User: Fold this.
Amino acid sequence: MTIPILLLAAGSASRMRGGDKLLEDVHGAPCLQVLAKRALATGQPVLVTLPSSDHPRAACLTGLELLVVEVPDADLGMSRSLQRGVAALPNNAKAVMILPADMPDITTDDMNKMLEAFVGTNATALRATTQDGATGHPTLVGVKLFEQFQKLTGDKGANAILSALGDSLMLHALKGDRARMDLDTPEHWSAWRARTQ
Assistant:
C-alpha cells in the first residue's frame, strides 16, 4: 500500500534566533537530512515541503530520491504546507504520514510500526502519542480526509480535522516522549544533545 511520508520543513524557525533548527547537527548530519533518510528507509515515497527549491535547506537533500514541494507562501502558516504537500501526493496514495522535520528522536522503526498499525486497522487516522498518552507526531490520515486539508487556514495543523473524528481516530504510543520532542530553540537543542550524546 502506498502511504507517502510528508516532512514539513517550510517553517521559518523564528525561535532559533538566527539559526536554523532543521540544519542543526544530529549525529553528524543536518536534522532534515537525517529525518529524510529515515523516512526513505521505510520504502515509501517521501515529500518535503520547503519555502523554495533553492532554500539553504535544499542543499542537504541533494541526491536523495524524494520530492521537494515548494511553499512560497509558507509565512501564511502551516496550513499552506499541508495543502501543498497533500496536493502533491501521488494519485495512488491511500493515506499520508505527516511529520514535522524538527523531531530527531523519531526513527525509521517508529514510522514502520505506525504504517503497519494503520494498514491493520479501519481507522480514518492514526496519531502518535507519548508513552504516557499525550498526543503528538507523526500522524497518518486516510485519503478520505485529503479534501479537508485544502480548507485549512492560517497556522493550523491537522488538530481540528483529527478532533472531529471521534472513534475513527486511533492512537499509537511511541517510546518515551519522542512523539512530542520537537526542538524549536537553541536551549531545546542544547538539552537534547546533553541527553543523547
